[in-house]
Design brief:
- The chain has a single domain (about 5-320), classed as Spore Coat Polysaccharide Biosynthesis Protein SpsA, Chain A (Alpha-Beta Complex).
- Helices cover about 25% and strands about 25% of the residues.
- It contains eight helices and 13 strands.
- The strands form two sheets. Strands 1, 2, 3, 4, 6, 7, 8, 9, 10, 11 and 12 form an eleven-stranded mixed β-sheet that branches.
- A hairpin with a 2-residue loop joins strand 8 (about 185-200) and strand 9 (about 200-205).
- Helix 1 (about 30-40) crosses helix 5 (about 135-145) and helix 4 (about 110-115) crosses helix 6 (about 230-250).
- The protein is globular and about 60 Å long.
Length: about 325
């Protein structure tokens, strides 16, 4: 079965201020998701699933029309706030799902986006952010992993990792998932670290509870490039039911009553159902294992508006080196 590239593109780009998923940063006006699709094609992927908000489909279709190869299968899936997989609609503890939805504007998070798209994913797939640049090596290694026989008694997945120092912004702090990988190459967990930045000769960050950390830059990090099979969906559904029940059991739906245990959450931010959190849960419960797959490729991403120049410069350099044509598809 042909593996699928899943592009997470339903984010609201709050910090960036506009739709960074389609920001023209390549020498030929390409967006970062164009590079992801180009590299995926070179690695043998020929099917793309775009997870977006429904109101954005027209603008995404306009972007890729005449740009992506005609023989590439492209599927759109809408992440809807009212899509609650596995949740009993009559739940009353103390708020009904309808009451929760009435107070929710932001999508439920990356793991929810993936879970709601499961009908479109009958076979193996990779899932990544549409607004990050991962490089050809990541897709080649993902394709190799999917062809392999590294399977066990529990579902086996993969995570492409990068070195922390290669992913930092010069324009402000970033959040990164710091990975613990054992000597056999298996992921033991992902810790979200916030506001990571260079300070003089050091790299500093803080944990979600607020503890300061000093990092050395060589730590493997997750940038949300996951390799899954459909075995992940029962795990996600069970996790979402638990997550949603905890949410509706809050005594109030006001922001100051939201749990603060979500990675990267701000005090007034609604909780999100995130892939790293659920992977940590599955690993901890022994119901899944994840192979860490390091790559030395360059990582580029836009967090702050000032990052655009950094990304543009990096793509221009790689184009001049002959790693990418301009435009990507003549």
């Amino acid at each position: 079965m042909i593996p699928t590239v899943v592009l997470l593109a339903a984010g609201m780009s709050t910090r960036y201020g506009r739709l960074k998923q389609l920001e023209p940063v390549g020498p030929g006006g390409e967006a970062l998701l164009d590079y992801a699709v180009y590299d995926a094609r070179r690695a043998g992927f020929s099917r793309v699933l775009l997870i977006i908000r429904e109101e954005l489909e027209e603008v995404f279709r306009a972007h890729l029309k005449g740009r992506w190869p005609a023989d590439l299968e492209v599927v759109f899936h809408h992440q809807r706030i009212d899509d609650l997989p596995g949740v009993d609609p009559t739940l009353r503890t103390p708020h009904s799902p309808a009451a929760v939805l009435a107070n929710r504007e932001k999508p439920w998070g990356t793991a929810h986006a993936l879970l709601t798209a499961r009908a479109q994913l009958p076979g193996p797939f990779v899932v990544l952010n549409a607004d990050d640049f991962y490089g050809e090596s990541a897709f080649l290694k993902a394709a190799e992993f999917l062809r392999g026989s590294d399977r066990g008694e529990v579902p086996t997945f993969g995570l492409v990792t990068y070195a922390l120092e290669d992913s930092l912004s010069d324009h402000g702090g970033v959040s990164r998932g710091i990975c613990r990988v054992n000597s056999q190459g298996w992921l033991e967990g992902v810790q979200e670290v916030l506001e990571i930045r260079r300070v003089d000769e050091s790299i500093l960050g803080r944990t979600v509870p607020g503890q300061g950390l000093e990092l050395n830059g060589t730590e493997p990090i997750s940038t949300n490039f996951w390799i899954f099979t459909p075995d992940v969906f029962p795990l996600l559904e069970a996790g979402f039911v638990e997550f949603f029940r905890a949410h509706v059991e809050l005594p109030s739906l006001q922001p100051d009553a939201q749990p603060d245990s979500q990675p990267g959450a701000q005090p007034d931010a609604p909780p999100e159902f995130l892939i790293p959190t659920e992977v940590n849960r599955a690993i901890g419960q022994g119901v899944a294992r994840v192979r860490g797959i390091p790559t030395l490729d360059r990582f580029l991403g836009i967090t702050h508006p000032e990052d655009r120049t950094w990304v543009e410069r990096g793509l221009e350099e790689m184009t001049k080196e002959g790693r990418y044509p301009s435009p990507l598809w003549a």
